[in-house]
C-alpha cells in the first residue's frame, strides 16, 4: 500500500511532464532518429546517443531525457529490419531474429515477419516499462542478491540453450561452442592481462568485436548464398502475405510473447549479464516450448516473436540497474548516463528518493516511444519489405558497402575489414558443413563472462574459506538464488531432451567424407593451436580457461573426426551443402572474390572512391547494368553512406596509401 | 589545493595576463577557426570517463575558440588507449584542428615503459589539465575500527576488492595497501569502477575505492544510509608538489597521514617515489589536453586563452562541480607543472614498480 502511495502520485505527475507538447516532440524526434540509426546494421544506441549528446546540453531535463529514451527505446525495434530483410543481425540483441526472420523473407513473408516482430517489440517494450515502474522501487535487494556465483550460473543457463540450437549433431554443437569461446579468448586476458593469440598485432589485443563476428558468421554466408542464385531475396519474387497476418501471428502466440518478455526483463535487470545473450535465451526457450520443432531455422514465426518480445523488454529491465546503481548494462547505457550528467542529474539511489516523478517520466517515455516507434515501423514494413523483391545482384553491392561501413565502426581501422573477411570465411564453412552457427555465437558471447565469473567466484570463495572455512565458502557459492537458477538449468535441459528432433521432411545433402573431414581437422587444428599458445603464457590463471575449453573441444573433435572417417554416409556427419544435387549456377568463391575486392579497393583508395568503384564495377560486370547507370548507382550509393556518416559524425576507412588520403 | 594554489596561480595569472594580453590580442587577430571543425581525439570508448569529460568541455571550448569552430569528439579506442595516442603522435597535422585528450590510462603505460607506447609527452604542448581525487572506503564497522587503530584493524582483516587490473589506476590503491601492510586481495576482471562498487554493495568485497565524482554521486548516499564509510583519501598535490588533504573531502584523512601514523615516520624510499609519481599521473594530472608537436605559438596561445576563458565561464563553473568535482582546471603554467609531475619518473622508480608488478601480480610488461 505504502508503495502504491508513493508510486501513483509520482506516476501521475510524470505523465504531466511528458504530456507537454515540447517534451512529446522531443520524444518523437528521438524515436525518428533512433529508427534511422537503428536501421543501419551494427549502429545502435551508442552511435545514436553520441549524435544527439551535443544537443542535449541546454535542453530542459524532461525534454532531454525524452529525446534520449525515445532514441534508445526504438533501437531494438528498428534493428529488426536488417535482421529480417537482409539476414544481417541489426544489433547484438537481434541476432536470433535472423534465424527464422530471414527464411521467412526468402519465402516471401517479409511483411508478415516484420509486423509480427514489431508487435512483439511493442508488447515487450510496454511490458518492460510496466515492470520498470513497479520494480524500480523494490529492486535493490533483488539486484544485490545476484553475486558473482549467481551470474556464473546464469551464464551456464545461457550455455544450456546450445542443447536446443545444435541442429542435427550435438557433437558439432559442442565443438562449435568451444570454437566460439576460443575465438572470443583472442586478446588481452581478463585476469592478468596475458596476450592470447595476438601474434603481436595490436588489433587482436582488443579481441574481435561481436559486430564483426555476427556479420561474418551470419551476414556474409547468407549474402554470398543469395548472390549465387541471381534471384531476389524473396524466392518467389513477391510478398506472399501482408502485415496484418503478422499481427494475427503475434496474437496467437501472446503467451510466448509474455514469457519471453519476462525473460528479457530479468536478463536486463541483472547487471553484468549483457544484452547479447537475451535473444538467445529467449530463442532457446521458444524452441523448447514448441511442440513441432522441425520448422525452426526454416521460417517459424515463433522464432521471430520470442526474441523480439525479449529484446525490447530488456531495455526497460536494463534501466533498473542503470538508474538505481549507476552501473550501465551496455555501451548505450553508459552514453545515456553521460547524457544524464549533462542534464544535471546523477543516476543513483538519491535520484530515486528525491526525483521520483522525473524517474517515472523515463518510464512513460519508454512506453510512449515503443508505441510511436512500433507504430511507425509497422506502417513502414509493407513498403520496406519490397526490398526483398529486387533482384539480388542489383541490391548486393549496396548491401556490401553498408556492411563494410558497419564493420569499420567497431574499431575504426582497416583491420576490421580484414577480420570481417576472415570470420566470414569461417562462417561460410560452418554453413556449408552444417555446424550450428548459433552455438558458435553463444560460445563467443558468453566466453569472457564465463571466464571472469569463474575466476572471480573462485577467488572470493578462497578468501571466504580462509576466513570462515568450508561452510562459508559453500554458502557463498550455493546461495538460495543460485539453487533456484540450478533448478531452472535442469528444467531447461530436461525440456531440451524431452522432444527428440523430428524427422526431416527431406534428406539433407551429403556426399563424400573428404570435404567434411578436412574442415573438422582444420577446426581441431585451431583448437590445438589455441591450446599450445595458452601453454606458453606465463600466467597460470590466464592459461586455465583456454586450455580447458580447447581440451574439451579437441576431445569432441577427435570423436567427430573418427566418426566421419569410420561411417560411410550419414546426413549429420557428412552434410555438405556443395554436394546437393541441384547447385546454384555460380560458385561461392566468386562472391567472396567480390568481397575481398571491395576491401582491397577501400584499402587502396579510401571509402569514398573505393565504394563508388566497387558498386560501379559490380553492377557492370556482375549485374549487367549499363555502365553509365552503374556509375551513377555507385556515386549515389557511396555518396549516401558518406553523407550519412558525416551527418552521424562517424569515421570512414582511409586509404592506406598516403597519396589517396583525402578529406573523407 | 584550491586555497593553496590560488595565490600562486593568481600571481602567475596576473603576470601572464599582463604579458599575454599583447600576445593574445595579436594571436586572436591571426588565428581563426571560423567554419572549421576541431577534432578532439579521445583514445577511449563512448560513455567512459574521458569521453564524458571531453563532451562536457566541447561546447564551451567551441564558444571560446576564435571563430567558434565546431568541436567534435572523436573516439579512437584500442590497445589500452595507446592506439589513439600513437595516432596523434604520428599522423596529425599541427594546424590546431586536431587536439588530444589524454587520460590516466594513457599516462600509466607511458610511465611503465609499455612497448606499445610510441608517443612522447614532452613533444606536445599542454593546454589544460583536469584533476580528480580518490577515496578508499569500507564497511562502517571496519572504518570505525580503522580510524581508532589502523594497525590492529589491518591485522585482523583480509580485504577483498574488485579490480580492473594491477597496471591500471588500481596500481595506486594496491601499492598504497602494500605500503600500509593491508592484506588486500584484488579480484581482477571487473570492467569499471561501478562494478567494484556493486561488488562491495553485494557484500562480496569489503573494501573499494572510487574517484571523486563516483564517490560523491554513488557512495555518499551509502554513507548516509550507514552502509559504507571512508577510510582515507589519496589527497591532492599542492603548488610545491606536496600531498595535502583533498579540497573536495577536507574531513577525510589522506593516505599519507595514515601511512605516517602506521609507520611512525615520514614516507620515503622507492615505493613512496613510485606511489607519488603514479598518484599524480593517475589523479592529479589525470586528464590533459594537448596540441601536437610543431604547433605554432599563436595557435597554442589561442588554445590557452580559450581554456582560460572556459574555466572562468560562470555557466561552466556552475555545472562543472557535479561532473568534474571542485578541483582546479589547470591551464597555462599550472598545466605545465602538472604535466611534468605526472609524466616524469626516474629509471630506478620505474624499475622498482615493474619488478613489484612482476613479483606481486605476475604481470610481465
From TrEMBL, chain A:
TM annotation in the entry: 114-136, 142-164, 171-187, 207-227, 260-283, 323-345, 357-384, 390-408, 473-495, 515-532, 544-565, 592-619, 626-645
Alphabetical keyword list: Membrane, Transmembrane, Transmembrane helix
InterPro entries to which the protein is assigned, alphabetical: DUF112_TM
UniProt superkingdom: Bacteria
Domain DUF112: 25-441
Protein name in the entry: TctA family transporter
Organism lineage string: Bacteria, Pseudomonadati, Pseudomonadota, Alphaproteobacteria, Rhodobacterales
UniProtKB/TrEMBL annotation, chain B:
Segment forming the signal sequence: 1-29
Domain of life the protein comes from: Bacteria
Record-linked InterPro entries: BUG, Bug_dom1
Key words, A-Z: Receptor, Signal
Claim: Signal is one of the keywords in the record: yes
Annotated PANTHER family: BLR1237 PROTEIN, TRICARBOXYLATE-BINDING PROTEIN
Family, per entry: Belongs to the UPF0065 (bug) family.
Protein's name according to its UniProt entry: Tripartite-type tricarboxylate transporter receptor subunit TctC
